[in-house]
Amino acid sequence: MARKQSDYLAALLSDEAENPAPAPATDSPPVAEAETSPPSPPPARPDRPRGATLLGRETALARLASGEVRQVTQLLLDPARVRIWRGNARLYSHLTEDNCRELIDSIIAEGGQKVPAVVRRVEGDPAHDYEVIAGTRRHFSISWLRAHSYPDMMFVAQVAQLDDEAAFRLADLENRARKDVTDLERARNYAEALGTHYGSHLTRMAERLKLSKGWLSKMIKVAGIPDDIIEAFPSPADVQLKPAYPLAQALDDPNAAAAVRAEAVRLATTQEERRVAGAPPIPGAEVLKRLLDAPRVAVSQPKEDPFTWTTRYGRPALTVQSVNRQGITIRFHAGSGADMETLAMALRDTLEHLERQGMGLQQ
User: Fold this and answer.
1) Is 142:54 a contact under the CB 8 Å cutoff?
2) In the β-sheet with 155-159, what is the strand arrangement from edge to edge?
């Protein structure tokens, strides 16, 4: 008898989960998509090491579908015919040979991919037959190997029948076992799923994922940190949940947010200069401290004089009188001697200056 999904998920998340069924052999030729009944798990082994649950976790994940185990089919696929499901937390564009090197070497040493990914069939896409629900790094690694001296390497996958919400829960379950999925990736994935799958009902989402509502709320909050502030950090991986939550809260105050954004622009510029020079970046902890201190530092510093654009003759042509949430107030001076073309250039230079200071119209 199929086990209910709630019990099954709990078992998978536990270090003392029941011993999983072994994965089907991957060195056989491609098979037809015939339905197979899920095998009954053998008796549990009390002395099984902690890492032994990984294979069982991923082979068993494909057995979940809408609350009950329904279908498991394993195939050997050309990764070019398999796209990445957009609902997964991991950003495929961030995967490289370097950050997948250990997995690539493991696949080579083992003569192929041993842990199957989880995919589902897609319709209406002539370029793809399946999409990856869990196993994005495996897809990248097999694709890389096929392009680098291993053209016959196949992408091993189990096919599951899942709706989007079930696919999200399955992918999230696997990502919890992965240290290389960043807090920011997971946070933004949760934020998108909240509206897409759960009607923006945080309590319902927390219950479905078996997560603390408070912890999930913090993840959603961190997901709202804008990209121009993330760019101040050496890497998105440095934006971790616990230290980043106060930063997300600070952005709720318009005055504090303006100071944080201005400091983030300065930090991002410095980080880029260091990258170009081959120097080490400013560490994430220091970036976070400077961003959190920015509102206090801005208050303690004397107020700067309004920005004034002067002509080559030293006459003021344009002055910024105020910058606030409603907009920017600019005064054009009579008698500056500037023609229309010069004033247009002055306005452009002024707006670019404000943008660099984190006070532009886009903020």
Assistant:
1) no
2) 73-77, 155-159, 117-121, 130-134, 82-84
